[in-house]
Design brief:
This protein is an alpha/beta fold and 375 residues long. It has helices spanning 29-40, 57-60, 66-74, 84-89, 102-122, 151-159, 177-182, 231-249, 275-286, 302-316, 356-371; strands at residues 7-10, 48-50, 127-130, 166-170, 189-196, 220-225, 253-257, 292-295. The model has no long low-confidence stretch (mean pLDDT 97). The structure holds ligand V1D, calcium ion (CA) and zinc ion.
């Protein structure tokens, strides 16, 4: 009998009080909903649950610039008018607003990812889950795309103390530009992002020809996609690419960003994935039986985000959830939209603009690039 994986899980009771502001799509309350669904399905009994530590500025500056971290530490909503220049310099404002307790929010979501990989490095956990993390757009000295501190870069730097090679995988509908940029010139981290590309879709980077530079050439993999990709096309492509990546790069550890905005029915996404397809990617990466950090990311239809990440928590535990969501005190009514069912609700159907010939072209190009790997 193969021993069950030891799974640690980070959740901060106060995370839901963070509010990006009226009509901003990012709603940290989705994390409370995820946690309550995990409780409703009794999954916490199989997890080692931790409150994430508030990490320090010194930890932030292992990647971010001191100027940027200092500014994040002193800015508050009522002081914004006095710092118009810095707000622009650090790209703070509409997409990345300053809100109350923002820095504590950053300390906690980053602390969860760093402490998770520390447990993996110590060999006391096999799988670390931090749904509040995965903020992949944050740059060294700049906020971007709702992200302030890049917990993923900091977690990967921590894993590199223990492993020669780490693979980063990103199934958020947006390109994982912040993580790719941080490791674009090194052969010690392979970054793989699957994302919508074209039509000026944010952030606009991550083309098929963006493969890394200098020592990092061929160590960045980009899989640019069109609207409406469905489970069959995505999972088939994901397994093809990831099998090649794992065979040729042979990493010691994995970081998987599970942005849920690639699900059908997302408020700002345009793919057609179901819970099943999204979870199939998580299950596939689990099957390599390497130390793995799994994080959240985007996801803007709250009830579907909670369904997705509760379901993937079960997947990582090797468990299957029953279709009917167990009635529970908090937020149960949020799932009325699909008859209190686990199956996500997708109001509109988007045509799959990824033709078989396009997908084969992408597969061939990725395979060709990986053949050039030498390490
Ligand atoms: C000058 N600006 C650049 C332009 C832009 O289109 N930004 C993207 C940002 C999308 C960020 C996606 C974040 C993420 O899902 O990848 C994520 C979040 C955490 O981890 N990953 C965006 N902003 C919005 C938005 C912002 C405020 C209010 C309403 C909106 F729809 C939607 N999409 C506007
Ligand atoms: Ca992505
Ligand atoms: Zn996203």
């Amino acid at each position: 009998m193969v021993a069950k994986e030891r799974v640690c899980y980070y959740y901060d009771e106060e995370v839901g009080r963070n509010y990006y502001g009226p009509n901003h799509p990012m709603k940290p309350h989705r994390l409370c909903m995820t946690h309550n669904l995990i409780l409703a399905y009794d999954l916490h009994k199989h997890l080692q649950v931790f409150r994430p530590r508030a990490c320090t500025n010194t930890e932030f500056t292992q990647f971010h610039s001191e100027d940027y971290v200092d500014f994040l530490s002193k800015i508050t909503p009522d002081k914004q008018q006095q710092y118009v220049l810095e707000m622009q310099r650090f790209n703070l404002g509409e997409d990345c607003p300053i809100f109350d307790h923002m820095l504590d929010f950053c300390r906690r979501y980053t602390g969860g990812s760093i402490d998770g990989v520390r447990r993996l490095n110590q060999g006391v956990s096999d799988i670390a889950i931090n749904w509040s993390g995965g903020l992949h757009h944050a740059k060294k000295a700049e906020a971007s795309g709702f992200c302030y501190i890049n917990d993923l870069v900091l977690a990967i730097l921590e894993l590199l103390k223990q492993h020669a090679r780490v693979v980063y995988i990103d199934i958020d509908i947006h390109h994982g530009d912040g993580v790719e940029e941080a490791f674009y010139m090194t052969d010690r981290v392979m970054t793989v992002s699957f994302h919508k590309y074209g039509d000026m879709f944010f952030p606009g980077t991550g083309g098929l020809r963006d493969i890394g530079i200098n020592s990092g050439k061929y160590y960045s993999v980009n899989v640019p996609l069109n609207d409406g990709i469905d489970d069959k096309s995505f999972v088939d492509l994901f397994k093809f690419v990831m099998q090649d990546v794992m065979d040729s790069f042979q990493p010691g550890a994995i970081v998987l960003q599970c942005g849920a905005d690639s699900l059908a029915g997302d408020r700002i996404g345009c793919f057609n994935l179901s819970l099943k397809g999204h979870a199939e990617c998580v299950s596939f990466m689990k099957s390599f039986a390497k130390p793995i950090l799994v994080t959240g990311g985007g996801g803007y239809t709250k009830s579907n985000v909670a369904r997705c990440w509760a379901n993937e928590t079960a997947t990582l535990l090797g468990k299957q959830l029953v279709e009917h969501i167990p009635p529970h005190e908090n937020y149960y009514e949020y799932y009325a939209d699909a008859g209190y069912k686990l199956k996500a609700h997708a109001p509109v159907w988007i045509e799959n603009l990824n033709t078989p010939s396009y997908l084969n072209q992408v597969k061939e190009k990725v395979r060709q690039n990986l053949k050039s790997l030498t390490f």
